[in-house]
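Handout, section B. The chain below has 496 residues.
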Amino acid sequence: MKRLRDQPLGTKLALSILAVSGTALAVASTAFIAYDRVSSDEALVRRLTGEAEIVGFNAATALLFHDPRSAATTLGALRGDLPVTAAAIYTPGGEPFATYQRTASAPLPPPPQVLGAGHEIRDGELWVRQPIVFEGATLGTLAIRCELSERERRLHRYLGIAAAVFLVALCVALVVGLTMQRRITRPLLELADVARAVEERGDFSQRPPPLERGDELGLLVTAFSRMLERLQQRDEQLRQAQAELESRLLERTELHRRAAEANRLKDEFLATLSHELRTPLNAIVGWTALLLQGQLEPDVQARAIATIDRNARAQVKLVEDVLDVSRIVSGKLSLKVQSVDLRALAAAAIDSMSHAAAARQIALDLAAPAGLPPVLGDPDRLQQVLWNLLSNAIKFTPAGGHVTVTLRTARRQVEIEVRDDGAGIDPAFLPHVFERFRQADASTTRTHGGLGLGLAIVRHVVEMHGGSVRAESAGPGQGAAFVVALPMAAPGTVPA
C-alpha cells in the first residue's frame, strides 16, 4: 500500500478534508457532550439543593420536638423525585433521626463527617448534604442519595446522536471534498500531464488548457505556459544552432576530404608527370648520345632521328596540356569564335590520327551526313577536342579494334560521338572521368601513359563553347563512347 506522501494529490486533498472535518466534528461533539453533562449535573444539584432546603425547613419542627415519624413523612415528599433513591436526617451527633428508602435494598447516604452544605459525585451517584438550621442553631443534617443512571443514559443517547451526525457529516464532507478537489486538482493534474509529456518526449509545444481564473492556480497555469513557450523558443534556437554546427562540420569535413583528395591527386600527378617527362627524355638523351658518337649505320640513324622526333613531340604535347590546364585554372584560356564546319574538322582530325591508328591496326571511320549545320567556336580548340578524344580512344583500344566518329543533329545541337570497342570504363569511375589529374590507373607502372589532363581539357573547352560532354560505357572490356554536344550557329552563318 502506498504511503500518504506517494498518494495522488486528489486523494491527499480528499483525505485532508475528511481529517479536518472529522476532527472539527469530534471536537465539537465532545465539547457539546461535556458542556451538556456539566450543565445537567449543575441543574440536578441546584434542583436537589432546592428540594433539600425545603425538606430541611419542614423537618426542623420534627427535630425540635423529637418527632421521627413526622420527619420521615417529610422525607417521603422526595418520593416524587425519581432519581432520589434514599435520604436521611442525621442528628448533630451523626445518628440517623429519620430515613427514606425508595426500595428496601437502597443504601442510605453516609452520615456527614463535617457539618455543612455541599455535594459530591462518587461511583455514579450524587450526594447532597444540607444543614437544618433553626434560629441560628444547627439541628441536624439532611443527606440525599441520588442515582445518575439517567445521566448515563442521556450521555449514551448523545453519543449515538453525535456518531450519527458524525457519519452523515463525513459523507457530506466527502461529497463536497471530492467536488472541490476535482475543481482544484484538475488544473494541477493537467499541468502534471503536460510536464510528463515534455519530460518523456522533449516536446515543448505542449500546453495546458488555459484557466481563466485570478487565483494562484490561474497564475500558475499562465506562468507554466509562458515558461514552456520560452523553453520552446530556446529549444528551437538550440536545434537551429546545432543544425548549423552540423552543417558547418559536414562542410569542413567535405573540404578536408577534398583537400586531402587534391593533395593525393597532386602527388600522383607530380609522380606521373615526372615519369612521363623522364621516359621520352631518356630515349632522346640515349639516341642523341649514339648519334654524337657517329658510329651508327644510316638506317639506324634514321630510326634514331624518328625516335627522337616522336619523343620530342610527346614532350611538347605533355607541356601543352600542362600549359592549357594552367590557363584554364587562371582563367586565361581564350577562344577565337567563328563559324565552324564540324564535318571538315572531324575529317581533318581523323586524317591526322590515321598514322597512329594504322600503327596499332585500328580502323578509323567517320559517319557524317551531308548538309550538317555549322557551329560557332574556335576551330583550333575544337580540333584539340577531337584530337584528345581520338587519341584517348586509340590508346585504350587493342590491336584490330575499331574507332568510329559520328556526327548528328539533336535538339538544336550538333553532336560528335567518338566510340571505341576497347578497354571500357568502370561504372564507379564514370563520374570522375573528366576531372583533372584523375586516371583509372594512376600508378607509374600502368599500361597506358598520359597525365590524365586530356579529358579535363575537353570538358572545359566544350563548356566554354556553351556545350556539354558525357561519357558512356557498359563496363570494363565493353568499349566506351564520348559524346560532345555543341549549339548550332544561327541560320545563314557561313562556315569559315
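Note. Residues 4-171 form a domain with the Beta-Lactamase fold (CATH 3.30.450.20). Compare this with the example in section A.
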